Each structure stands twice: as structure tokens, then as C-alpha cells.
Amino acid sequence: MHHHTMTALSRRRLLAALAALPAAAWAQGPGRPDKITVAGWNKPIVEVTPLLVDEDKGFYRAQGIDLAYVPGAGGGDAIRNILSGQADVAFTDPGSLFAALDKGEKLRAIYDIYPQNVFNVVSLKGSNITKPADLKGKKIGVYSLSSGTRQNLLVLLHQAGLKESDVTIVVTGLLNFAPLLQGQVDATAATDTGLLVGRRRGLGEVNVMEVGRSLNVSSDLFVVREEVFQQKKAALRRFLQAYRDAAAWMIAKPEEAAQLAARRAIDGSDPAVNLEIIRLRNAASVSALTRLKGLGAMDLDSLQKAADAYRQLGLIGNPLKVAEVVSQELLPLRGTP
Prior knowledge:
By secondary structure, the protein is of the alpha/beta class. The chain has 14 helices and ten strands. It has helices spanning 2-20, 23-28, 54-57, 75-83, 94-102, 148-159, 178-181, 192-200, 226-231, 233-252, 254-264, 271-284, 288-293, 300-312; strands spanning 34-39, 65-70, 89-92, 107-114, 119-124, 139-142, 168-171, 187-191, 206-210, 220-225. A five-stranded mixed β-sheet has the order 2-1-3-10-4, with helices on both faces. Strands 7-6-8-5-9 form a five-stranded mixed β-sheet. The chain is globular.
């Protein structure tokens, strides 16, 4: 009897000792890693290299995370994939987040991936489209109807007093400037990396309207369902630590990242282009706030301004209190390595 009591006591002691260990120490142990599936807004492309190189770099394994990636066509897709339970974390744009919250979905934003707005609308020089009002009656390409390219195009249109029905929206697929060059669309909504690739492919002289000049809100956030946020806090915290480590590595070693992207990304065949894409994504990942508080820190004022703008522009119907749907509590502290 005495013997058994000792075993129970020592087991309790062992559990208490384990509980006191930091998360990383758990990860080293024989315990099963936590699976975290990220729903992307795209296929595994160069610009999401921090999510593609765990086989090479082990950022997620080091945190006890078994990482998986589910592709999508736009930020709205990423959110649908977490709502259906196919993924834990959505890589999505604020506009898609606001639209889902407006429909009553219970979501939580937990990390600011790109504090800078990287969206734009591009047209050929000859078309004389230089300001949002010039888009009236025009055909405009978007990546998909549930993507940040469409959300940000709507912001530009509405700021010029135009509605979606004042233009013809054409789904052209990702980073695709062929329809613009061939005259099938008059302008196309894109991102800085999309434009870069277009220019490398001979886009020629273009006019670029940067949405960030009128609404400089984050381009992409990590978003989870409220239920997942409550149930998986420890694993999500370690996932964010790993992502931040991977993003910091990409900032510190862009050349290495470009080489690995050549092996891991579906569009990564040219390391020189990879490097340019990576440099743009590195620049979009930092801001005055992240320099102060660390990568991933969220600017509540900016997100609230954006939510208010989306409502004033008629893109969402209900007022949103951003502070209620943004949580910084899972962010790694500045001091952690």
C-alpha cells in the first residue's frame, strides 16, 4: 500500500515539475507535437516562405508544432477554411475579417503579419487612369472575389463615390497581368509583389494607385475562431513564436530564404525574383510599432480606423469594436529570443 502511495506522490511531483517547464522544454520531450493548420489566401508561394521551410529550418518543430498548410484563393477562402474546421489559423486580410465579423462570425485576430498596406490598382500608362474616379465604367481585374485585391479595390472606388456596380469586376487569377496587357481589363487590383513580378515579365509603363496612401491598414492578419482561441491558447502561442522566429530569420537572411524558396515554393524557380519578393515582404512585416513591441504587434487604432472606414463606405453594415476581436495576449513578448 505504502509503495503505491509513493508512486502516486512521485507521479504528482513529476507532473508538477513538468508543468513548471517552459513550453520549449516540452517540445524537446517525447510528447506528441500539436498540429496547427494554416489556411492560406493562396497556394504555397514565395511570399509565405516562413510557413514553407520547417523541414529545412525547424522553427515550428522547435516549439512542438506540427505545421500544415491549406491553400485558398483569397482571404475570404482562408476564413471559410477555419469556419469549416479545415484549418486552425487563417492568413487573411482585414477587409475579409471585417466582412465575416459583419455576418456575425465569432473570430479573433491574434498577429499582424504585414502592418503595411501592400495593395494597389495598376493600369497601363496610355489608359490615363490616375485617380480612383477614373475607374468609373472600367473593367478591373481582381485575384478572386473573396480576396484582399477586391476588398482594397472597393475602398478606392467608394472613396471616389463609386459603387461596385459602377465598374465591371473580372476575376483574373493570381498576380496575372496578361489580361491587362491584352486589353481584356483596363486596370487590375494587385499587390506590391504582384506588380514586381509583372514588371519583371515586361509590363512596361504603368500607373499605380497605392491603397495605403488613403487607408494604411495592415494587409494580413492571423485570425482564429473564438472557440479555437479559447481551446488552443498554448499551442497558438507557440505557433506565433515559431512564425515570428521564421519571419525574423527571413528578415535577417533574405538570401538563404530566397534559396530555400526555390525548393519549397510553387513559384520559386528564380532565386533572384524570390529575393526581391522576400525583400518586399520583409519591408511589409515591420512598422514603427513592431520595432517597439516586436513582430506581430497589432495597431488597434489603425484597425479601428479601417473598420470605421469600411462601415462609412458601406462595405460593412454594423459598427465593429476592434478591441473586442483583437487579442495580443498570445504574442511572444519582446524579450523572448
